Amino acid sequence: MQTLDYSNKVVMISGAGGGMGKLAAENFAQAGAKLAICDINQGNIEALAARLRENGCEVFAGACDVSDEAQVQSFVEGSIESFGRIDVAINNAGILQPLAHTHQLDLKHLDSQYNINIKGVFACMKYQITQMKKQGSGHILNVSSVAGLGGAPNLSAYSASKHAVIGITRSSAVEYGRYGIRVNAICPSHVDSPMMDSVEDTTPISKDQIAAANPMKRLATMQEIVNAMLWTCSDYNSYMNGHALAIDGGLTAI
Fold first, then answer.
1. Pairing of strands 138-143, 244-247
2. Is 6 a catalytic residue?
């Protein structure tokens, strides 16, 4: 079996300070990548960068609020100054709204979903694509959700934001494929992750109940989602473009 090799590749990951973003950074580092990583939590991202450097990984790291275009521009430009290019960009930063029926949703939560889950992806892609056009190649992977492929009761604002991510992905794939840039999205279902822990901690819904609704009767592991990222972003997957890949245990097949 061929091994996914990211030697001499520069991989950018937002929201890398914890959860799936952190695990992705660790896995891409193990595969030989140079990393440009950011997170809104400066302490978390600096601690991760220090550990990765101890293991021999070249890292550019910084605090970045993806809803702030100036911060995004500064981080991307700093990454390019450090490494000269961006081969892969994983736009992973995102937040979950509090569970609520649509008519009970405080619109401030809609604003936060827009600012981070939609505007944040736009801002990152704006500067990533600018560089990838110059170098004539690149792959962008946006983290959407199965909530972006169908309805998500009690999560209408989150679902709307993740539908938007897929729309951004598909539109950009058509625009930039001619420049050697591929843009895809990954759509996980329920993952055993810190985000899922927050749902269990703040609602009456348990992980066991959520798992029971899946055809595989379990949650995804974060490693399973990161494995899909590693393959999707690799040179072995060179013709997928504009695709929203469901990693959901069969949930969308129901």
1. unpaired
2. no
